[in-house]
Amino acid sequence: MKYYIIAGEASGDLHGSNLIKELKKLDPGAVIRCWGGDKMQQAGGELVKHYRDLAFMGFTEVLMNLRTIFKNLKFCKQDILEFKPDTLVLIDYPGFNLRIAKWAKEQGLKVIFYISPQVWAWKENRVKMMKRCIDKMLVILPFEKDYFKNKWNWEVEYVGHPLVEVIEKEKQSESGASGRPIVALLPGSRKQEILKKLPIMLQITPSFEGIHFIVAKAPAIELSFYSELLKSYPNVSVTDRTYGILKTAKAALVTSGTATLETALFAVPEVVCYKGSAISYQIAKRVIRVKYISLVNLIMDKLVVKELIQDELTPLNLTRELNEILFDPERRKQIGMDYATLKQLLAQGGNASANAARSITRFLNEEV
Asked: Which domains does the chain carry?
């Protein structure tokens, strides 16, 4: 079979690479062409475009780069037609992938979506179009199956969360010895968001003597970008091994997104940090309908980890919250118990990558 897979972010590259590995086990003759990153390429996909060329965040940033986005869409459609895949597998990245899904359906292509857009949070009206254009939807959050069935009469398949197996495997590998206590700083994967959050995180580091702060470097961003920001902070270093520091960290300051879930699955107490441009934030506040911004709190449906959003993300508030998760035994114990429940919920589906690959190949074989 010929598969065309599109992922537009670092997390999509990770999950896409594991999906490719599982697809190749089930379909040894698989030919896979992809948009993604180094991991998908290493797993055996023929990389067409790297996600670092696709990463635009926030409403204003997207508007400023519309010409590039439309150029990428045009190129993608042409490349798909020339490749003639048996199926198109779209991984998250909804702003781009839903446009491709709609177009692909019109071309008569089989469309599979892995990792649903978070329509339960905002832009819920997209579900009608998704039902028409997506032949198979594979979801990774436990509540999504009931959401689509009960509210939209759409049978989707829950395959489990792919991060569970990724992090369990990582935990089994050796971790480096740690001297001073470590606090991990995860300010995001795009330059725009890092510039908003990392300077605030760095401001509090001199207040914590004896603590080693380590910034997790985003894969697609050069080291010199961080070096410039860190030159006044001798107690802060950078690593490209995010999971390596999460294995040994005592606490973490984490931007909203997948990283909040990764941190929780490593059982590291965290403070969730979000700050966007004023315009983007005001728009988001009016259209997003969920109670929380972190996946940890959304899945658990309660405030497990503190969220400091926009104007609340100040050095004073961050210092207070970090002190609490570092040095309050009761707080750390409660977070640990909640994390254990979270992991149990996400692990119910089993190995997500293998489940997704089985579902995809079964669907394609039935359609032949």
From this structure: 2-160+350-367 (3.40.50.2000), 167-347 (3.40.50.2000)
The pLDDT score that the predictor gives to residue 60 is: 47
Q: Are 27 and 361 in contact (CB under 8 A)?
A: yes
Query: Distance from first CA to last CA of the chain, Å, rounded?
Result: 11
DSSP of 37-82, one letter per residue?
A: -HHHHHTT-EEEEEGGGT---SHHHHHHTHHHHHHHHHHHHHHHHH
- What single DSSP character describes residue 325? H
> Rounded to the nearest 5 degrees, what angle is found at the Cα of 17, between the Cα atoms of 115 and 119?
10
SS3 of 299, please?
helix
pLDDT band at residue 290 under the 50/70/90 scheme: low
Lowest-confidence region among 21-30, 134-143, 215-224: 215-224
- What is the pLDDT averaged over residues 116-142? 92
**Mean pLDDT of the region 45-65:** 69
